[in-house]
């Protein structure tokens, strides 16, 4: 009998531990480091948690992880760090969210080896293929496309509406592409919703074009924002989602999106929206698609009804309960 087996037998005989162990049976621990609280991925975790049948707990301290039956990490870097401090996680039901790569080749073989100790959830087919190509064992990977709140985002009739973007300012969100789209369509009104755009070096030039309104709003106001739109544009070079894409489609807005993240999973080109290559260098290609989107008569909302938070949480709970 090895040391670990001996320790387990002693624990099993410790009657005072049994109530504690019983309370943690079936429990899911959502791990988000304290320094990352308030991040959009935390909000997504809470959407899942509040819909679970299983008991759950949130933890942000690498050195104070509670007893649980399953551990959910909303970023692969968090799992890497947690595993270094808590090597016992290798024997647990650890589920790791993979939204998109943070660095080229995920930082090397070390990351691949770490992911091969867990279950991995991607939000789109593209990143599933990417992980398999890098060496993550395919049987470990589940693809669960993102979600939006069916009741919170109501459909509206399109016609005469504006064109919208919904993104915080990051380079990977391709701000120069947004600039060129707005500049080349002076006959259209645009709304940009998101934080930190004052950090964009061409901020004054962008909003000096005269046909773009900039807003920063609370999430409760997002349905009203989407209700003003006919077309939603996702200009990103790299995405895991984006979740606003599904929110806009739930609101019956026609999407025009780069083919990254789950856009190719939810958009049938020319039927419920339009796709273009994420590395497209000609803004006029995107402008043409936006003009086509303005004339589309499809019921966009109907095409994304399966992508609800209830279904999303249910798919995750199956992983949490699996041995």
UniProtKB/TrEMBL annotation:
Keywords noted in UniProt: Transferase
CDD domains listed in its UniProt record: GT4_PimA-like
UniProt keyword annotation of Transferase present: yes
Pfam family, one: Glycos_transf_1
Gene3D superfamilies from the UniProt entry: Glycogen Phosphorylase B
InterPro entries recorded: Glyco_trans_1 (IPR001296)
Source organism superkingdom: Bacteria
Every Glycosyl transferase family domain range: 162-294
Protein name: Glycosyltransferase Gtf1
Species for this entry: Blastopirellula retiformator
